[in-house]
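Side project, low priority. Logging it here so it doesn't get lost.
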Amino acid sequence: QVQLVESGGGLVQAGGSLTLSCAASGIIFNSNTMGWYRQAPGKQRELVARISNGGSTNYVDSVKGRFTISRDNAKNTVYLQMNSLKPEDTAVYYCNLPFKVQLWGQGTQVTVSS
C-alpha cells in the first residue's frame, strides 16, 4: 500500500523559508518521478515542482528561483526547500507521483503572513 506523508509546514513571515519533507513507502521510490503540489483555498491543486528519478527538475513559473526540489533515494524522501516566501504561497502542500498519481496524503499547511 502506497503511503505519502508530508511534514515541515508552518507559519512564516513573507520573505522567510521553510523546508518540506515527504516520506514515501509502498513504491519503488528511486524509479519514479516525484512531485510537490499545492492547493490554496478555493483553487485547484497545482503541480509546483517535480524531480525525475535521474534528478532532472521542473518548476512552475511562479516558484522558479525560489523553490528547490530534491530527493534522497536512500531515505525514500523528497524535499521542497522554499525561500523568499510570499503570501500567495499559502496553501496545503502535497507530494505525489505526477505520472502515476496515488492516494493523496494529508498534506502540510504552509501559511505566509504579509
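Brief comment: The beta strands are 3-7, 10-13, 18-25, 34-39, 46-51, 57-59, 67-72, 77-82, 91-96, 108-113.
Revisit when time allows.
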